[in-house]
Amino acid sequence: MTLEVESIDRMYLNIYIPKLQRESGASWFLKEQRQYPVASSAAMAPISRAFVAAIESYAQTHQVPLLTFAKRQRKDDVVAPYIKQAAGREGIVVIGKAQEKTTTFRTTKGHGPRSQDRWPRLLRTTAMVNQYYFYGIDHDFGPFFFKFSSYFPYTAKFCLNGHEYLKQQLGRAGIAYEALDNGILSSADPVRLQALADGLSAENIEALDPQMASASAATLHRRRACRGL
Prior knowledge:
There is one protein chain. The chain is an alpha+beta fold. It has one domain (about 10-229). Helices cover about 30% and strands about 30% of the residues. The chain has seven helices and nine strands, in the order βααβαββββαββαααβ. The strands form two sheets. Strands 2-3-4-5-6-1-9 form a seven-stranded mixed sheet. Strands 7-8 form a two-stranded antiparallel ribbon. A hairpin with a 6-residue loop joins β5 and β6. The two termini are about 35 Å apart.
């Protein structure tokens, strides 16, 4: 053992609207907010098309490559050259698309004796839908990514890496170190290294360059407030 340090590894922050995770909340949104007479999965399709169009427009406007990940392809290996090429600058550097299973809703009909029991209704289920990965670089945190589901209820996930944060901080402090793919092998100042690891806080994460976050989050519908846990 040449170095022992306690730090955060990968951290995933889930982004979602709690009310839209249930059938009743999704039904209310479609009927009251979107003014559809009946809450059905068909009403979600125009929202998804607009969402995907916004992503494609963002990629074209900002000249960000938009890739399609192949099945079983390791995403980190695909985006690594783009991250390496963008070293020294901040921003979203590549967007990747992959089909993955996620929670969503479909329409079903009841079979009760009363007419109101036979109306179409939403049922929470799972489906294979396109997920969009926004890979970026931040001055303080290094590489990170957002993952957006392209279908209702449009959940998202934000991933950062505490080891990449440490590498950025060590470089800015002028402390020599030897890096691993996902960690630190050695450091010229282990005490300072541990202090930097301890300094990663909720405030640091919330202060992650707003332009980095908004560049990706802008593709979500601005009218809805997302809650991150």
